[in-house]
Specification:
By secondary structure, this protein is an alpha/beta fold. Helix content is 56%, strand content 8%. An 8-stranded mixed beta sheet has the order 3-2-4-1-5-6-7-8, sandwiched between helices.
Length: 450
């Protein structure tokens, strides 16, 4: 999970601060020393770290902080504010041309996830009512054109290509004519990358830029390359002039130093971050929300965004009525599980809930496979069995276990957990937010998720 290591270390530092009634200048400096080490270990640029620590320390040792009623909270508030400023203060959105088509030029090194990000960006814009066209200008990498076509077909977006014999400048120029003739208001050009930056690559990209005059040039960098991603961004900006950055594979990098450094070093905003393989795993980058996640404050707004994308409003209203009438079935539960899966990893979702202790969560295993096993069991039931599980006798359970590849014990456990959940929901509608006992599941475990 992104920033997992950094977040855990910072939260431990701040626990010590909050545990003290009063803070001295020495306490603050010791805490900032630990924060500095945590940032450096997260692969944040050392100049950025130095400036960050200096700024927070100077503000923290003032009388207003040290003599306040909750000095530890005040220091955390300052760190939160400085993190937001470091990453760009506010969300930076894509801009659109006043005269369509709007052209976005995607650039970056090979292996950063540029082609995949090109398709995801087109998918996001199509959801906003746009009519995007993908353009295959990488004529050098084997199967690059085919990859873009596969990505395009995944999101049902057309791809303009002229094979690998026509030069990229001509392809890019012709794509604009095609877009105008076919009513595409967005053109996203997937350019060639290299394993390293060279003059040939930059000259070609510069020529494509001159030919199509893009509204924005977006650089795709791999979070896992750490400081090298920042160096790449700096060089591309000097040579081409960037408008924004997309950071990929953030879900695979527990450090996250590239995201924390790149805006400060280059002056260019991070516009999107890639958190996985699916379309919905590329998210608009919100500095304030990311700062809150790092400091363990949760991220309710992103959780709401994900829920709104995944859940059907009409289904939600019907579900509420079923819960109120105690008519919630295994069929309904299966529908809810499938919608929750669209929102992403369960562990990541739990991490967005304010007040969840991330360090405690780190020791717990959230078994994502348990959800798949539960789905398999329910899908092996008949329509009647899903709506009335009381009819499930020994022979029916044996058939369901065999059909789902699970054991009879697992089938029984699911039925028991489902019944417990129905009772909890009954309490929910008539006995306060968490029912009379105020508990969800047993020993703090989430039912069905291991």
């Amino acid at each position: 999970m992104a920033f997992e290591s950094l977040g855990e270390k910072l939260q431990n530092v701040f626990k010590k601060l909050k545990g003290k009634g009063k803070l001295s200048e020495k306490d603050v400096k010791e805490a900032m020393r630990e924060v500095r080490l945590a940032l450096l270990e997260a692969d944040v640029n050392f100049r950025v770290v130095k400036e960050f620590i200096t700024g927070v320390t100077e503000k923290s040792i003032g009388h207003e902080v040290l003599e306040s009623l909750n000095p530890g909270q005040q220091v955390i508030k300052l760190v939160h504010e400085e993190l937001i400023a470091l990453m760009g203060s506010s969300q930076s959105q894509l801009t659109f041309s006043s005269k369509p088509p709007t052209v976005y030029m995607m650039v970056g090194l090979q292996g950063a996830g540029k082609t995949t990000s090109t398709g995801k960006l087109a998918g996001i814009l199509r959801k906003q009512g746009k009519r995007p066209l993908l353009v295959a200008c990488d004529i050098y990498r084997p199967a690059a054109i085919k990859q873009l076509q596969v990505v395009g077909s995944t999101y049902n977006i057309p791809v303009f290509e002229m094979g690998d014999k026509t030069d990229p400048v001509t392809i890019a120029a012709k794509s604009l004519d095609f877009a105008k003739e076919n009513g595409h208001d967005i053109v996203i050009i997937d350019t060639a990358g290299r394993l390293h930056i060279d003059d040939t690559l930059m000259d070609e990209l510069s020529n494509v830029r001159t030919a199509v005059k893009p509204q924005e040039i977006l650089l795709v960098v791999d979070a896992m390359t750490g400081q090298d991603a920042v160096n790449v961004a700096q060089t591309f900006d000097e040579k081409l002039g960037l408008d924004g950055i997309i950071v990929t594979k953030l879900d695979s990098d527990t450090r996250g130093g590239a995201v924390l450094s790149v805006k400060k070093v280059t002056g260019k905003p991070v516009k999107y971050v890639g958190m996985g393989e699916k379309l919905e795993d590329m998210e608009p980058f919100h500095p304030d929300r990311m700062a809150s996640r790092i400091l363990g404050m949760g991220d309710v707004l992103s959780l709401i965004d994900k829920a709104q994308q995944a859940f059907d409003e009409k289904q939600a209203a019907e579900l509420e009525q079923k819960i109120r009438n105690n008519a919630f079935t295994l069929e309904d539960f299966l529908d809810q599980m499938q919608q929750i899966k669209k929102m992403g990893s369960i562990k990541d979702l739990i991490g967005m809930i304010p007040g969840v202790d991330q360090s405690a969560l780190a020791g717990q295993e959230v078994d994502e496979k348990a959800m798949a096993h539960t789905e398999a069991i329910i899908q092996s039931m008949t329509h009647e069995e899903r709506h009335n599980p009381t009819i499930l006798n020994g022979s029916r359970k044996k058939r369901i276990a065999k059909g789902s590849g699970r054991t009879i014990q697992e089938v029984n456990r699911l039925l028991k957990q489902f019944e417990d959940m129905r009772k909890m929901m009954k309490n929910f509608t008539g006995g306060g937010m968490f029912g009379k006992k105020g508990k969800f599941g047993k020993k703090g475990k989430l039912p069905f998720f291991g």
